[in-house]
Amino acid sequence: MTQLTVDLGARSYPIRIGSGLINKAEEFTSIIKTKRVVVITNDTVKPIYLDTLLTSLADFDVSAFSLPDGEQYKTLDSFEKVNAYLLENNCGRDTTLVALGGGVIGDLVGFVAACYQRGVPFVQVPTTLLSQVDSSVGGKTAVNHPLGKNMIGAFKQPEAVVIDVDTLNTLPAREFAAGISEVLKYGLICDKAFWKSLIENQQQIKALEQSFLIDIIYKCCAIKADVVAQDEQERGVRALLNLGHTFGHAIEAEMGYGVWLHGEAVATGMVLAAKTSLNRGYISQADYDEIKQTIAAYDLPVDKPEEMDCSAFIKHMMRDKKVQNNVMRFILPSELGQSQLYADVTQQELEQVLDA
Ligand code: NAD
Ligand code: GLY
């Protein structure tokens, strides 16, 4: 087991990464400080991992609640259902919630933990690659609104993140690829050597070789922990973690939540951001080709939905959380392995990228 810390003073917490962690009671007894524990999961993850986790939580007064699976259930309605379960079972503030699942469950449970009785502790047990490298770390929690992705939420840091890499063995290939999208993102934001290693080691990573998986998860969590420690509430550098997301969230919302996976939309979004950078002369044609080919080689989409034109993107992008004073702001590669925030991208530039 390897461990990192998200350094937020009194609210610092560990990220533990290893094999078989959900089978180990001490992973949880050493973290959870309340007697009462409620595990929240979904109907896909439940039959695979819930019993194992409940056995490891046997020292606690533990119960579980399961939601239907899918991005389309990351809603205020599901939020209400979890709150109702907690109230019906007389859960007080001395209850720890455990989010067992991917980013949908993690974001939703985190938001419940932020709100239920004005806040209860929670632990992230992420079971998708995407949630292990990104969503479980950093305390962004939310549900979707029909008019926009992650529009209702809160910052709420977990007590700990327990990453059991063995859970990736049951993850469908399409979901694994979606997780790789966020992994590639870290390379493009701030680490060219990491980016190159993801090209070099593609075969081993796609074959789920455990030492490679642990290495990339550790690297991504280390980058994210560092960014979050500098800028917990995204007033500056944390916005860089949104590379590809402005375009990607528009695709998710326009196509209907769950039609494009989040990671798939981000993958195409990163290609669109890279194209904008190419047109601005920040990256070379060879860099752009490398970005597009690498994303495609990890079985991710690189072309926007045909039916979405520039105006369809702009409609959603105007609601992006980075918009300030009615001006859209984009994270773009400033060179290969570096990204920056730009507030001067014009409609004409967007048309060149999105209507070409
Ligand atoms: P997800 O939670 O929908 O999980 C993907 C699928 O895999 C689901 O069908 C799930 O049931 C299944 N699954 C989960 N673990 C499994 C396992 N071990 N074996 C088999 N099946 C398994 O999707 P995701 O990609 O994990 O997360 C996407 C969500 O995360 C989006 O809502 C996105 O907005 C959010 N997100 C949040 C942040 C953040 O900082 N909070 C960052 C990135 C993404
Ligand atoms: N996934 C973007 C962030 O956590 O800030």
Offer a few descriptive terms.
single chain; Dehydroquinate synthase-like, alpha domain; globular; 11 strands; 356 residues; seven-stranded mixed β-sheet; binds nicotinamide-adenine-dinucleotide; 14 helices; binds glycine; Rossmann fold; 45% helix
A few lines on this structure:
With 356 residues, this protein is of the alpha/beta class. It is built from 14 helices and eleven strands.
Report the end-to-end length measured between terminal Cα atoms. Answer: 48 Å
Low-pLDDT runs of 5+ residues are none
What is the number of strand segments?
11
Q: What does the radius of gyration come to?
A: 20 Å
Major β-sheet annotation: 7 strands, mixed
Helix-strand makeup class = alpha/beta
Mean pLDDT, all residues: 97
Ligand roster: nicotinamide-adenine-dinucleotide, glycine
CATH class of the largest domain: Alpha Beta
Q: Can you tell me the CATH architecture of the largest domain?
A: 3-Layer(aba) Sandwich
Helical amount? 40-55%
Order of helices and strands: EEHEHEHEHEHEEEHHHHHHHHEEH
Strand content: 15-25%
Task: Provide structural commentary.
The chain is α/β, with parallel strands linked by helices and 356 residues long. It has two domains: 2-170, Rossmann fold; 188-354, Dehydroquinate synthase-like, alpha domain (Up-down Bundle). 45% of the residues lie in helices and 19% in strands. The chain contains 14 helices and eleven strands. It has helices at 25-29, 46-56, 76-88, 103-115, 129-135, 173-190, 192-200, 202-206, 210-230, 245-255, 262-280, 285-297, 310-317, 347-354; strands at 2-6, 13-18, 36-42, 61-67, 95-101, 122-126, 140-145, 148-155, 160-164, 330-335, 338-342. The strands form three sheets. It has a seven-stranded mixed β-sheet with strand order 1-2-9-6-5-3-4, with helices on both faces. Helix 10 (245-255) packs across helix 13 (310-317). It is globular, with a radius of gyration of 20 Å. The model has no long low-confidence stretch (mean pLDDT 97).
